[in-house]
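User: Teach me something about this protein's shape.
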Amino acid sequence: MKKILILGAGTAGTIMANKLAGALPRDEWQITIVDRDETHHYQPGYLFIPFGIYTPGDIVKPRRDYLPRGIDVVISGLEIIEPDQNRVRLQNGRVLGYDFLIIATGAHPVPGQTEGLLGDEWQRSIFDFYTLEGAAALARRLKHWEGGRLVINIVEMPIKCPVAPLEFAFLADWFFTEQGIRKNVEIEYVTPLPGAFTKPKASALLGDFLDRKNIKLAADFSVGQVDQGGRKIVSWDNREIGYDLLITIPTNMGDEAIARSGFGDELNFVPTDKHTLRSKVKENIFVIGDATDLPASKAGSVAHFEADILFENLLDVIDGREPRAKFDGHANCFIESGFNKGLLIDFNYETEPLPGKFPLPGVGPFSLLEETKMNHYGKMMFRWVYWNLLLRGAKLPIEAEMTMAGKRR
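Assistant: First, the predicted structure itself:
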């Protein structure tokens, strides 16, 4: 019996497990998926916890409820991947062999990478919201915070969901307005990028939104250290920004097992062909989602579109052909802008976000690069789509390849 091993049962790994289980004969193929714990997190929901919109119970469910029956689910951390032997050693002592390996080990924040970020003030005056624990702790802090200087800082790129820090800034503006203390809160958005976002046109639009909401933008600011005693962040070129409450988006890194295996980059992301999703490590290893080093957003929509491509390519390779499907870097992101409104951007490797209607040309119902209530509803409805359709590998009415239909240049 031939074996497919999937490392990671997050968004990307779960989608692939469901797609493959529905396509490969079970008497010929054994599918095994490995993850470190039994719970699946709807990670876009972390953003809403600090503002009381979601609770932790809204975004955490049993992992096995979303994995197909008949596959082998192994709960363990990874120790090392040994490509030359076609096997993976787990931290529980098991050794798993494979014919094809899919690395879907994701990314996670590593605050210890920045001098002074961890310490006595962690989860007291310094918080993250890219973890469930951090988001829940921040919710408790914001509930009774009376105001001051709120600084939102991206330590370095790439990060998961690049628009989430902006969404946090917009929601903070809304939240403090609703609390009646917005006049007591100074919000500053601090980024290593030259503007508010990675794509110039969207960056200009989002920068304008920051201005309209009285949120200060500090660009080209690369944090070298955090001075907890002085409550300030210090850049590598010795600029300083003070804070009363620091919301950090720490360095994001891939799984430590990638480093132990000796083939990741400096952030433990796996070298990957940006079109076929085949690894540059060995031909029978493929990579998907946040684990890749692709110049694409590390976002759930990207994992979804990559899964459609990888599914086709893996079936090609199984049949002895070269992979034919090409991933174009397609990303599609709702951006919550507060006050029950939102924006939507759709782009790929070559094409920046453009205005228009999505997904139906001229109809929508969503508007690109425009703030609307419908975009907000789309953002909020996506949680149902995620649990009931996306994770289960269902065919959605959005193609993996970005289309220019409905867009205006």
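Now, about its shape. The CA atoms of residues 361 and 406 lie 4 Å apart. The chain has three domains: 2-106+255-318, 110-251, 331-390. If you'd like, I can walk through any region in more detail.
User: That's plenty for now, thanks!
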